[in-house]
């Protein structure tokens, strides 16, 4: 099965009833981009992973060079650069954080840069530079409020007029953002649902704590309901992607498509398998599956449903 999927990796993921779902790759290194066979681009460049071993902040030029290399490894297909996402489980040596009682509820993602806008702007300069040469999307992580979206956009626009074609989005990974995406996304081109954090915050179960791993299940109907809410409430024309780990599981990926998600981003080696699965799928059946899943009592029931129907 893997061989067939690999042989067809470069074919688009078009369902049997003619809906094409771009399948992107999550990337934390240039090598990840090279390994992403058949990816339609990158739906998530984890910049904090790219530069995770740096003792000093990388310059704009250093960042631009790595972004260029990733774009080249993906044959110039679109890359989605996520601005520094640090805090919680992700320390960054060049930006030490004071100890916090609840790091996952503390200064994470975009929140950190309210006190270091200089570091965010250096990164956004690199984004702008590369966006003038190759298709680029930029997205802000850990956004909760409309005011934070406005602040992120302000940091970008302070650097000058936007390069043609640069798309702007946010991660939807906080339940408040999922519930209010109709307002949060008013000035955006896309949103990308981070199911890892969305699951953690919806179930109040730490994603790194194995004692509560069973609770932190991305197939929990509460998480699926939030995804459905995002799809139904984004402003017209705003694309909805999923870049959390749920998109890397072919069965869950079909469910996401059924919920109305338009794009997926998976870990590189899973891209051909997710694409192969979607090619065998009728969108109408996926939509029926999603309706059934939303009616399930638990993640376990959803998982059984997926097993039964795949
Ligand atoms: C997520 O939260 O789902 C996500 C994709 O981001 P990360 O795993 O890097 O927090
Ligand atoms: Mg996240």
Automatic annotation (TrEMBL):
It comes from the Bacteria. It is found in: Cytoplasm. Homodimer. The dihydroxyacetone kinase complex is composed of a homodimer of DhaM, a homodimer of DhaK and the subunit DhaL. Belongs to the PEP-utilizing enzyme family. Component of the dihydroxyacetone kinase complex, which is responsible for the phosphoenolpyruvate (PEP)-dependent phosphorylation of dihydroxyacetone. DhaM serves as the phosphoryl donor. Is phosphorylated by phosphoenolpyruvate in an EI- and HPr-dependent reaction, and a phosphorelay system on histidine residues finally leads to phosphoryl transfer to DhaL and dihydroxyacetone. General (non sugar-specific) component of the phosphoenolpyruvate-dependent sugar phosphotransferase system (sugar PTS). This major carbohydrate active-transport system catalyzes the phosphorylation of incoming sugar substrates concomitantly with their translocation across the cell membrane. The phosphoryl group from phosphoenolpyruvate (PEP) is transferred to the phosphoryl carrier protein HPr by enzyme I. Phospho-HPr then transfers it to the PTS EIIA domain. This is Phosphocarrier protein HPr. The lineage of its organism: Bacteria, Bacillati, Actinomycetota, Actinomycetes, Propionibacteriales. The chain holds residues 570 to 879 of 879 of the full protein.
């Amino acid at each position: 099965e893997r061989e067939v999927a690999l042989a067809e990796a470069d074919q688009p993921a078009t369902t049997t009833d003619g809906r094409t779902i771009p399948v992107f790759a999550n990337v934390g290194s240039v090598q990840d981009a090279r390994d992403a066979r058949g990816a339609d681009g990158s739906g998530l460049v984890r910049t904090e992973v790219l530069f995770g071993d740096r003792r000093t902040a990388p310059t704009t030029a250093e960042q631009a060079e790595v972004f260029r290399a990733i774009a080249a490894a993906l044959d110039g297909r679109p890359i989605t650069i996520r601005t520094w996402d640090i805090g919680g489980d992700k320390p960054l040596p060049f930006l030490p954080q004071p100890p916090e009682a609840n790091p996952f509820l503390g200064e994470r993602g975009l929140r950190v840069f309210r006190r270091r806008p200089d570091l965010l702007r250096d990164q956004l300069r690199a984004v702008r530079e590369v966006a003038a040469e190759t298709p680029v999307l930029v997205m802000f992580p850990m956004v909760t409020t409309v005011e934070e979206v406005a602040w992120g956009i302000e940091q970008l626009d302070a650097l000058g007029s936007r390069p043609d074609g640069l798309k702007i989005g946010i991660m939807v990974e906080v339940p408040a953002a999922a519930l209010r995406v109709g307002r949060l996304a008013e000035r955006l081109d896309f949103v990308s649902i981070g199911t890892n954090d969305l699951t953690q915050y919806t179930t109040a179960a730490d994603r790194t704590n194995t004692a509560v791993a069973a609770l932190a299940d991305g197939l929990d109907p509460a998480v699926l309901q939030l995804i459905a809410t995002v799809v139904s409430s984004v402003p017209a024309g705003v694309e909805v992607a999923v870049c959390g780990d749920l998109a890397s599981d072919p069965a869950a990926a079909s469910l996401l498509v059924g919920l109305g998600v338009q794009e997926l981003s998976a870990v590189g080696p899973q891209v051909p398998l997710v694409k192969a699965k979607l090619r065998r799928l009728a969108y109408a059946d996926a939509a029926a599956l999603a309706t059934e899943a939303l009616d399930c009592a638990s993640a376990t029931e959803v998982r059984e449903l997926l097993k039964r129907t795949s």
